[in-house]
Write a structure and sequence with these properties.
heterodimer; A: about 300 residues; mainly beta; Lipocalin; Immunoglobulin-like; 2 domains; nine-stranded antiparallel sheet; four-stranded mixed sheet; B: about 170 residues; mainly alpha; Rna Polymerase Sigma Factor, Chain: A; Arc Repressor Mutant, subunit A; two-stranded antiparallel sheet
Chain lengths: ~300, ~170
């Protein structure tokens, strides 16, 4: 352990000898979640109210437990709770850059988007299929109540992923880089959206005339003389991207990622063998700025040589 | 006293046993005691409905720790980009385990650095040097890849080493 590690350890362990200046937590402070009957009552109340809103699907309201048993107001098309919506959520189009752990397609007409209105409604789509719904904010948690979504089928897999994200979202937050993050009830990250600027014409039929979100796009170039039968990359955010087969001298298509360095974890299959490029860490590296890059891969003996190219 | 069934504490007993430790963890991540208490309370409220399914004590502790860290990060995000209202005045009065003056100065510098780190990075540092977790455990608590957890800690250490070197050359 060096001086820096020791300093952190000493600094942090000082808290062990401090008397905690706030009241101790007692079991009674952790409010009880209502029992099944109450939850069912909430669900029915939500269903009854939402049934009056044509085209809206019904979701059970899973609000925070209350120490006083009470059925909270069911979500409506114009929830008063919208007043507590954080300002940064409103007035902009959020373009998906990652859904269900997978990067979205980069083509602008394929990228799902979300727009939140101050009146408690949201619009979304991919955008050949639109969805309209309501949202409700309570105690810092946000729940979406999406209505029926048409299924024309521009991109079925991505559509389903988008729908899963909408259905499962229980909390949103904005990260240090300004990305909108949607989390499920367990705190698992469902999707990441990027602020693509103010939406042009708030209205019932949003057609975002907005270009592709500025993201990092990375492709693989096979700089070797053998065909790659399969290539995978795992980026620092944990996103795994499948680039597929790439012939000798060829390039893959670009894939969008949130964060990338001049190298990343790679698996290449070629000639019946599997080659891995596994960085130890990214210490001292700077994140790549938005733009298009190629990882040029060459096979040298049993290892992969990687060179970053700015396209 | 609440019942302890099969050697495993029930939820109420768990709160009595662990809330103190969880509060200190949350304080180190959020930077103030009120937010820490809110974070632990929020986290335990979320844990309660799942308590019956958290049978294994290791998984249970890891799950609760992840919930507390998530709650801390959510609170930090909710309060926006404003600086945390850290309460450093409480800490310098407390004992440093190694007592020489240089250790106290270094620990003060480390605490100042901690309060200025981005939330995820600070949480990683706290989990590493306060909770003595492995990088895999930190990654699980933060919900990020192990390489990212390792990178968070190494970056903070790199800054700390620079500050210590600067302190030595100035002193």
């Amino acid at each position: 352990m060096d001086d820096a590690e020791r300093a952190f350890r000493d600094a942090l362990h000082r808290v062990d000898s401090v008397k905690i200046p706030v009241p101790a937590l007692e079991p009674a402070d952790v409010r009880r979640t209502p029992g099944l009957g109450i939850m069912l009552g909430r669900w029915l109340a939500a269903a009854a109210a939402l049934a009056m809103v044509a085209g809206l699907a019904v979701w059970a309201l899973a609000g925070r437990g209350q120490s006083v048993v009470a059925v909270p107001a069911a979500p409506s098309a114009t929830p008063s709770a919208a007043a507590s919506v954080p300002g940064w959520l409103l007035g902009t189009t959020w373009m998906a850059v990652q859904l269900g752990g997978k990067p979205t397609q980069a083509a602008p007409d394929k990228v799902p988007f979300l727009e939140f209105r101050a009146d408690g409604t949201f619009y979304g789509g991919d955008p050949c299929n639109n969805v309209v719904g309501t949202y409700q904010v309570a105690d810092g948690h946000l729940q979406l109540f999406p209505g029926a979504m048409s299924e024309i089928g521009c991109n079925t897999g991505q559509q389903q992923e988008f729908r899963t994200v909408l259905d499962g979202t229980r909390r949103v937050s904005i990260d240090d880089r300004g990305f909108l993050e949607l989390f499920d009830q367990s705190g698992d990250l469902l999707g990441i959206f990027q602020n693509s600027g103010a939406y042009a014409t708030p209205g019932p039929s949003p057609t975002p005339a907005i270009g592709p979100a500025p993201v990092i796009r990375i492709r693989i170039r096979n700089a070797s003389s053998v065909d790659f039968t399969d290539v995978y990359a795992v980026f620092p955010t944990g996103t795994k991207v499948h680039y597929g087969p790439i012939p000798a001298g060829g390039t893959s298509k670009y894939e969008s990622v949130l964060e990338a360095y001049s190298y990343t974890s790679l698996t290449v299959k070629a000639g019946g063998r599997t080659y891995r490029y596994q960085p130890v860490d990214y210490v001292g590296e700077s994140l790549l700025p938005n733009g298009q890059y190629s990882y040029a891969l060459n096979l040298a003996g049993s290892r992969i040589d990687l060179t970053l190219e700015h396209d | 006293m609440a019942a302890v069934a099969n050697g495993e504490p029930n939820f109420e007993e768990f709160i009595r046993i662990r809330s103190d430790r969880l509060l200190r963890l949350a304080f180190l991540v959020t930077g103030n005691w009120d937010d820490a208490r809110d974070a632990v309370q929020d986290a335990l409220e979320g844990v309660l409905p799942r308590w019956g399914r958290l049978s294994d004590s290791d998984n249970r502790d890891a799950y609760v720790r992840r919930c507390v860290v998530n709650a801390c990060l959510a609170i930090i995000r909710k309060r926006g980009r404003s600086r945390p209202t850290a309460e450093p005045q409480l800490l310098p009065q407390a004992k440093v385990q190694a007592d020489p003056a240089w250790a106290i100065a270094n620990a003060d510098e480390a605490w100042r650095l901690c309060t200025s780190l981005p939330a995820q990075q600070r949480a990683a540092v706290v989990l590493r040097f306060y909770q003595d977790l492995s990088f895999a455990e930190i990654a699980a608590a933060l919900g990020c890849p192990e390489a990212t957890a390792r990178s968070h800690v190494h970056r903070a250490l790199a800054v700390m080493r620079t500050r210590l070197e600067e302190g030595q050359s100035n002193g």
